[in-house]
Amino acid sequence: MKFMLSCQEATRLSSDRLDTPLTPAQRWPLALHLFICRHCRRFDRDLRRLHQCVRNADGGQVFISLPPQRKAAILQRLEQEAQA
Amino acid sequence: MPSAAELTPDEVRRWVDAWGDRLYQYAVLQCGDREAAADLVQETFVAAWRQRAAWSGHGSPYSWLRGILHHKIQDWWRMQQRLREQVDDRVDPLEAELFDSRGHWAGASADLSPETLCERDDFWRWLEACLEQLPALQAAVFRQAELTPAQREEICQRLGITNEHLRVLLYRARLRLRTCLANAGFTSEEGS
To answer: What is the pTM (predicted TM-score) of this model?
Structure first.
């Protein structure tokens, strides 16, 4: 088991643990690294926050609209369906 | 006996006006392909009309429509065979930029402001802009794993990649998104 992680290895584990539980052999070195490294601590915090934010991707306020010609096409298609 | 909630063509047309944009945005975020997103929204409304007997008349039409759209998005991802051809993007220059040869941060990292990240109105707009700048496979993996929450095994199967490769791609996508969002001004006030 490797005890001293590089920042690159630590950030990789910060990412992995959002998807899958770490093994103890990964967890303790990561905890130690995060304790001593402020940059990786922030990276870890940012990643967790981003992970929480993107769940329920309902997109919040609308910033992209259906192009008008596509909307017209949908209405026309529904017209055909209703007459069918 | 006709159900009290029976849908009329007029009502469905009103739904297109009321929810079309929102569904389209949802599909764009999940697929990253605007043409496909518009097609899927159209199919959703047609399917909703054909299945109108299943509409309960209670709750939000948007939730019902989004449920239909969600399944269509999953099917769409299953058909994205072209991504399988890109599976070899195994080296990402960004990692070499961010970390030195010993694996330490090469410079000050760009911190996000975690407290306000998604409270900002423009979060999703920027997230989409940043996703569009990602290598195709990274963006595809992030959209499927994080925005849609699909099963990891299912995503690996669709793309023909291993679980380990999936995690590498997610890691790189997150590195890039964090950097991109920080550059877009979602930075921490506290400085270095």
So the answer is: 0.87
